[in-house]
Specification:
Enolase-like, domain 1, 336 residues, eight-stranded parallel sheet, 12 helices, alpha/beta, 33% helix, three-stranded antiparallel sheet
Length: 336
C-alpha cells in the first residue's frame, strides 16, 4: 500500500446560542483530520467535549502521536485497539472510512461492512430520516415561544434541568400541540425531580426521557418505576457499557464522538439491539461533516437527533440537505 499523508487542523464554528443543564455555547471547535493517499483525500471531524475531559489541544496531540502509524497504513481495526474512544478517534476513523470509499470508487454504504449492517445490497442510497429539533434550555415563556416557532416540526427534543421543568413542558405542549416530544435532562435531575415529574410527563405528550441522572448515579433507576422509556446518553459511550446498563435503560444514544467513530458505532448499535435495547443516534455540536457518518446509524435508529447543522450560521460546502426536519443522505462531495 502506498503511504498516506496526514493533516490535522482545528476549526471554530459559530451557532445560535444554545443552553443545556450544565453549559451554554454560541460557538464550538472541531478537529478535522485529512488522510491523503494516491491523490485521494478522506476526511473526518471530531468535536472534543469538556465534560469528557477532552480539549482541542489534547485531541490534536493524541492524533499527532499516531502520525507515523497512520501514514504507514494503520487500518481501522488496528485503530480501535490502539487509540482510546473519543473525538480524536472519531475524526480519524471517519477519515479512514471516507478514504476507503473514495479509493474503491464507491459510496460508503456500498462497502460490505456497511451494507451488511444496513441489511441492503449496498446499491440503493439510504433513505431519508426525520430528526428531532432540539429546544435550548430557557424560561418556560421563551421555550413556549420557541415551540410555537417550530410547531410544524414533527418531533421536538426539550432540554430540561430540574426546577421549573413541568412549566416548561406545559408551555411547549400548548404551543406545539401536534409535535411528538422527548426530553433530555443532561444529568440534571434529582430523585425528587424524577418522582415528581414523571407521572405528569405522559399527559404532556412526552414519549421518552434521556439521561435524567448523573452517569455515576444512575443505578437508582433500578429501583424506580419507568412508565416512560429512559435513554442512556452520558452513561453509554461504547459497547463495553451495555452490560452495566441492562435493567436501567430502555434506549441507548449512540454518538460517534463518544464511540470513537463509525466503526464502533456500528458495533454498538448491533450489540445493543441484540441485547434488547432500542437505539437513538445523536450528535455533539458539529458541522455536516460530523453528521454524515452518523446518518448511517440513523437508518436503524428509532429516534434520530442529527440537528446540529440547523443551528449553524454557515456550514460546509455541499452540506447535508434538510427539508424542515427531514434529513437526506450526504453527497459524495461532502463525505463517503
Amino acid at each position: 500500500m502506498n503511504s498516506r499523508k496526514l493533516n490535522i487542523r482545528t476549526e471554530n464554528w459559530s451557532e445560535e446560542p444554545f443552553s443545556i443543564s450544565r453549559s451554554y455555547e454560541d460557538n464550538f471547535d472541531v478537529v478535522v483530520v485529512e488522510l491523503e493517499q494516491d491523490g485521494v483525500k478522506g476526511w473526518g471531524e471530531g468535536s472534543p467535549t469538556e465534560h469528557y475531559n477532552e480539549s482541542v489541544q489534547q485531541t490534536e496531540a493524541l492524533i499527532e502521536d499516531f502520525r507515523k502509524v497512520l501514514e504507514n497504513g494503520m487500518s481501522r481495526q488496528e485503530l480501535q485497539q490502539a487509540m482510546p474512544k473519543g473525538a480524536a478517534r472519531n475524526a480519524v476513523d471517519c477519515a479512514l472510512w471516507d478514504l476507503e470509499a473514495k479509493l474503491a470508487g464507491k459510496r460508503v454504504w456500498e462497502l460490505p461492512q456497511i451494507s451488511k449492517h444496513l441489511a441492503t445490497d449496498g446499491k440503493s442510497e439510504p433513505g431519508s430520516v426525520t430528526t428531532v429539533y432540539t429546544l435550548s434550555l430557557d424560561t418556560p415563556e421563551k421555550m413556549g415561544e420557541a415551540a410555537a416557532k417550530h410547531a410544524r416540526r414533527p418531533y421536538l427534543k426539550i432540554k430540561l434541568t430540574g426546577d421549573g421543568d413541568l412549566e416548561r413542558l406545559a408551555a411547549i405542549s400548548e404551543n406545539a400541540p401536534n409535535s411528538r416530544l422527548v426530553v433530555d435532562a443532561n444529568e440534571g435531575w434529582t430523585l425528587e425531580h424524577y418522582q415528581r415529574f414523571v407521572p405528569e410527563l405522559k399527559s404532556l405528550g412526552v414519549e421518552m426521557i434521556e439521561q435524567p441522572f448523573p452517569a455515576d448515579k444512575d443505578n437508582i433507576l433500578k429501583t424506580l418505576e419507568r412508565p416512560l422509556p429512559v435513554c442512556a446518553d452520558e452513561s453509554c459511550h461504547d459497547s463495553g457499557d451495555l452490560e452495566r446498563l441492562k435493567g436501567l435503560y430502555e434506549f441507548v444514544n449512540i454518538k460517534l464522538d463518544k464511540t470513537g467513530g463509525l466503526t464502533e458505532a456500528l458495533h454498538l448499535q448491533a450489540q445493543a439491539e441484540n441485547m434488547g435495547f432500542r437505539t437513538m443516534v445523536g450528535c455533539m455540536s458539529s458541522t455536516s461533516l460530523g453528521i454524515a457518518p452518523a446518518f448511517l446509524i440513523a437508518q436503524r435508529a428509532e429516534i434520530v437527533d442529527l440537528d446540529a447543522p440547523l443551528y449553524l450560521y454557515e456550514d460546509r460546502a455541499s452540506p447535508i440537505k434538510y427539508k424542515v426536519s427531514k434529513v437526506f443522505p450526504p453527497s459524495a462531495e461532502l463525505w463517503g
